[in-house]
Amino acid sequence: MATPRKATPRKATVKPVIPRKAAARAARTPDPRRAELRQRLRQQTRRALIGDGPAVGIDIGGTKVAAGVVDGEGRVVAQLRRVTPTTSPQGVEDTIAEIVEEFARDHDIVSVGIGAAGFVDAERSTVLFAPHLAWRHEPLREAVERRVRARLGRRVGRRTVVENDANAAAWGEYRFGAGRGESRLLCVTLGTGIGGGIVTSGSVQRGRYGIAGEFGHMIVVPGGHRCECGNRGCWEQYASGNALVREARELARANSPVAHRLLDMAGGDPEAITGPLVTEAARGGDPAATELFEDVGRWLGIGIANLAAALDPGTVVIGGGVSDADELLLGPAREAYRRTLTGRGFRPELRIARAELGPQAGLVGSADLSRGWG
Ligand SMILES: [Zn+2]
């Protein structure tokens, strides 16, 4: 007797997970890894064209223009400083052209990099907004190239690029300073405000419109201290040179006995207290100055924990004048970071390191970026 055969199950009709049209669309969308590869190839081509020769780096600040000729190893081989003549873009552009002309006399310049505090467009040619210079949509690259040509009757270098100053500083530290070899690097520059830069897999992350890395304006205290940007409670109101000085002066104005040493050092005038003065007092063991750095350091650590939650970097380099206090600032920052980090105890901790290039980071970084890196 034949055993009954099992009924063949009906073939299931499975709908494709991705409809055919969507699949075709996905195939047309460029693979991000390919896009990255293409960008790297473009960079390599540019670098091959421009080479590793001397590049000019220019750092435009609110009060001074610092410039240098930087070699392929990140060394500053010549240097110049000028007072920022005026807040008008034309005045500053003339100064930059003058500096390039001077350097071009003794050096065979390959490219020019200009670092400016403010928003720089994604094409790296126009300063969209510079808070300290009253610049609005200033086509800086073109203006400088035109002026240099007019002065020398020729082009200088193969190209000129404009960078956000904090991006340039981050790049400088990545290539030649405390961030060497780090595949996910953040740089936090503590000056009057906070500058931020992101370097990932050998590229500066500028964002879709060129404005990424404005860490200083992340709000950490809703309704807190008023910021220059118009909002309240921005991170830079708590963890910057301005924050340090504001707190120190407030302490001195309150006539607190703990502030007597700071006041003495400032000749009895609370308004004469500066960041370097607080640093000096803290180094000398003054308890009030030490506490002020602990407070700023704590805010710094909390902000770094926020950045870690969003970006998961391996190293955060701390630069700018406030970082001169070194462990007086970084010690409390590390402690606050550890206490605030989300998932603490279950994830590797990033490294918080002091910047190595000092005030030259921006200049060195913009020069190097102009060669086609980043
Ligand atoms: Zn702000």
TrEMBL record:
PROSITE patterns: ROK (PS01125). Belongs to the ROK (NagC/XylR) family. GO terms for molecular function: glucokinase activity. Residues 1-33 are annotated as: Disordered. It comes from Kineococcus gynurae. Gene3D superfamilies: 3.30.420.40. The keyword Nucleotide-binding applies. CDD domains: ASKHA_NBD_ROK_SgGLK-like (cd24061). This is Glucokinase. InterPro entries: ATPase_NBD (IPR043129), ROK (IPR000600), ROK_cs (IPR049874), ROK_glcA (IPR004654). NCBIfam families: ROK_glcA_fam (TIGR00744). Keywords: ATP-binding, Kinase, Nucleotide-binding, Transferase. SUPFAM superfamilies: Actin-like ATPase domain. The keyword Endoplasmic reticulum does not apply. Its EC number is 2.7.1.2.
